[in-house]
Amino acid sequence: MRSIAGRLTVWYTATSFSLVLVATGLLYWTLVQNMRADDQRMLADKVQVLRTLLRERGADPATLKEVEWEWAAREYEQVFVRVLTAANTTVVETPGMSTVLPAQALANPDAATSGVVEVRGADGRLFRTVTAVAGEPAAHHVIQVAVDLTHEQEMLAGYRTRVWVVLGLALGLSAFVGHAIARRGVRPLEQIARTARQITSSSLDARIAQARLPSEVASLATTFNEMLARLQDSFERLSRFSADIAHELRTPVSNLRGETEVTLGRARTPEEYRDILSSSLEEYERLSRLIDSLLFLARAEHPETRIAREHLNLRRELKTVVDFYEGSASEKGVTLTIDVPPTLEIDADRTLFQRAVENLIANALAYTPSGGTVTVRAIADGPHCEIQVVDTGRGVAAEDLPHVFDRFYRADKSRASTSGNLGLGLAIVRSIAQLHGGRVELDSELGQGTRATLILPT
Amino acid sequence: MKILVIEDEPKTASYLRRGLSEHGFVVDVVRRGDEGLHLAQSRDYDAILLDIMLPGRDGWSILATLRNERCPTPVLCLTARDAVADRVRGLELGADDYLVKPFAFSELLARVRSMVRRSGAPPVELVRIGDLTVDLVRHRASRGGKRLDLTAKEFLLLALLARRTGEILSRTLIAEQIWDMNFESDTNVVEVHVRRLRSKVDDPFEQRLLHTVRGMGYVLEER
């Protein structure tokens, strides 16, 4: 059975019904035992009375008859009594006893110890009987007493019928109650399922109300809500990202379109055409770079992306990038220095590593005014290696710091479209760090400078 | 120099034909893969530009067939797919180079020329452009009889431009060849280096040899 409610119902029902069954069975058994014990005591009592009579008065049929009559007069639990001589001749017996229970039908006193035996009479009635010996062993008498069980049997039969009715009712009731309890128990789950069913990309803000949930389900609901929050966050970022992409594409495309339309509006000199085409070419380049960067980021996020690691000398690789930027730095009046031990080595994808460092240095240079310094450092740190790019530039405001690695995030909104800064540089650095199993951090103080730290496993 | 262009996108095919013809190549363009393979097999070309997604027969299959037949013509794959696996596949199948769309035409031109050069032509030792002399063996450059004082990187840059005189070299190609930086750089860093070189090679002299072609790159030539 797949449903939890169904399973719970079955278990509840089975458990409570079993309890009722055991209890009822035990009561019935006790009742039967008690009745038997009563009969036994009664039979023993009668044997005792007869023995006393026989001992005191001898086998006087008149006296015996008296006793016997008294017993036989009882309406219920009719009792038969017979006294035999040692030679098996009847001295006295309850009238009619010989037809129902002949002397031979009862146990032989020699064989039987005075135990109680159940015997079925000639008319089909069940008797509980006892056979005992009385008097001197030389001239003893045999006493046979039988009690009619018909009434007892009827009573037990009635009792059994009632037991079955009670058991049937108990089964029905426990199934019903069990089902109700189970439904109640799984209702919070259904509530969660209902919420989950209603969630689509546009209703990711839905949450499961936790106030009235039992603690076990509440933790599930919390987990579920957290998952929803994460999904919502990713989804929002994704759609914001798509919007950003569209926006980033819109500017250059609109420039291209406008320039071309204006140019075609009337005849121009070849120089003017050349100028417009060159300007277009710059926009195309920008678009290409944007597409490349976006594709790179998209691919880097794919979990199956593999990188081609090779053994790199850190100083040599960093020197390459620093050399490349040395010209730009000195032209800007910024001192670009490198401080890397010559022996440090790292396993990394060379192109990606260069690209990450290049982005960090370009950033540092862009935000460092003339007279400042940019230092590239590397430190071995256990299984990792830290590459730091430290500048004395204008720094990043504290409120911008958590976002600098987001795509298209630019601390300086006004610089956005003119500087050729795509706002993807640090996002790319982070992707590269993650592809290598490392990370990137940025510490900064406004007006003091920034330190970007690329932490990669060696 | 004959070049076969197998490309189904009409605009791409058209500008490739025009651009390559204007740079002195004889260009055949086909739009279908099967026709392209047929032409490549029946005629002699100096280079083949091969698109990957083609009607009739795809680029991979054309490349594989040509290499199976031991056809030595250099092949440059052009494609919008730039997954590393695609690049590797192209190079494994025997492509000589791989360009991802969108690419700069100057880049394409440079690559085609270097492909064609690779298969022939002895190395140059001395290049003369106007009164500029670049000695590629002794790593020296002089202009108007005066020795130019260049740093190692500056000489490498001048040598690259001199060896390919008349060719427009893109910033990417320069960054790749001189600094071994293998990606599209976001900055105008190359511009700074060219400017410094120019201050030594051009500025003291009357005639300008090192020209900037806006949006495309740099060229060293007498105009």
The topology string of helices and strands of chain A comes to HHEEHEEEHHHEHEEHEEHEE
From the coordinates shown, what is the CATH architecture of the largest domain in chain B?
3-Layer(aba) Sandwich
Poorly predicted tracts of residues of chain B: none
Q: How many helices of chain B?
A: 8
Termini Cα gap of chain B: 24 Å
Number of strands of chain A: 12
Mean of the pLDDT scores of chain A? 83
Descriptive overview:
The complex is a heterodimer of chains A (458) and B (223). Chain A is of the alpha+beta class. Chain A folds into 3 domains: 4-156, Beta-Lactamase, CATH 3.30.450; 215-301, Signal transduction histidine kinase, dimerisation/phosphotransfer (DHp) domain (Helix Hairpins); 310-457, Histidine kinase-like ATPase, C-terminal domain (Heat Shock Protein 90). Chain A has helices at 4-57, 61-72, 97-100, 150-198, 215-265, 270-301, 314-332, 350-366, 425-435, and strands at 79-85, 90-93, 116-120, 126-134, 141-148, 310-313, 335-339, 345-348, 373-381, 384-391, 439-445, 449-457. Chain A has a 5-stranded antiparallel β-sheet with strand order 2-1-5-4-3. In chain A, strand 1 and strand 2 form a beta hairpin. In chain A, helix 1 (4-57) packs antiparallel against helix 4. The two termini of chain A are 54 Å apart. The mean pLDDT of chain B is 86. Chain B contains 8 helices and 11 strands. In chain B, helix 2 runs parallel beside helix 3 (59-68) and helix 6 packs across helix 7 (171-179). Helix content of chain B is 40%, strand content 21%. The radius of gyration of chain B is 19 Å and the shape is elongated. Chain B folds into 2 domains: 2-118, Rossmann fold (3-Layer(aba) Sandwich), CATH 3.40.50; 126-220, Winged helix-like DNA-binding domain superfamily/Winged helix DNA-binding domain (Arc Repressor Mutant, subunit A), CATH 1.10.10.10. Chain B is of the alpha/beta class and 223 residues long. In chain B, the strands form 3 sheets. Chain B has a 5-stranded parallel β-sheet with strand order 2-1-3-4-5, with helices on both faces. The two termini of chain B are 24 Å apart. The A-B interface holds A 277-282, 284-285, 287-289, 291-292, 295, 299, 306, 308, 320-321, 323-325, 327-328, 331, 350-351, 354-355, 358-359, 362, 420-422, 425 and B 82-84, 102, 104, 153, 175, 179-189, 192-193, 195-196, 214-216.
